[in-house]
């Protein structure tokens, strides 16, 4: 599945939800380096990838570490409503 992932693909915790970041690198063994808005780069293990389609990577929240889940929860905090 990771052979379909490209740099720049948007990353989501659910299909149809709001993206929280973008793929920066696909590592040799299938893990991803993902830039999370307002938090920086995180490694997402290939086992946490639930689906890949239409330029999107969907990850399973239960496959992510607590620090990354917390960053995802605050990825859009700096955005101004209605802008």
According to CATH, what is the topology? Answer: SH3 type barrels
Number of helical elements? 1
The low-confidence runs, each spanning 5 or more residues with pLDDT under 50, are none
Provide the spatial order of strands within the biggest beta sheet. Answer: 4-3-2-1-6-5
Largest sheet: 6 strands, mixed
Strand content: 25-35%
Number of strands: 6
| Strand and helix order | EEEEEEH
Specify the CATH class: Mainly Beta
Into which percent range does the helicity of residues fall? under 10%
**Shape designation:** globular
Secondary-structure arrangement, i.e. CATH architecture: Roll
Q: How many separate domains? A: 1
What's the short version?
The protein is mostly beta strands and 83 residues long. It has one helix at residues 66-73; strands at 10-12, 21-26, 32-36, 40-44, 49-53, 56-59. The protein starts with 9 loop residues before the first strand and ends in a 10-residue tail after the last helix.
Topology, pairings included?
Blueprint: E1 10-12, E2 21-26, E3 32-36, E4 40-44, E5 49-53, E6 56-59, H1 66-73
């Amino acid at each position: 599945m990771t052979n379909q992932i490209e740099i720049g693909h948007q990353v989501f915790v659910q299909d149809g939800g709001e993206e929280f970041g973008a793929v920066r690198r696909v590592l040799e063994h299938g893990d991803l380096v993902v830039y999370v808005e307002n938090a920086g780069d995180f490694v997402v293990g290939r086992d946490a990838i639930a689906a890949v389609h239409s330029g999107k990577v969907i990850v399973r929240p239960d496959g992510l570490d607590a620090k990354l889940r917390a960053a995802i929860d605050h990825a859009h905090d700096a955005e101004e409503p209605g802008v």
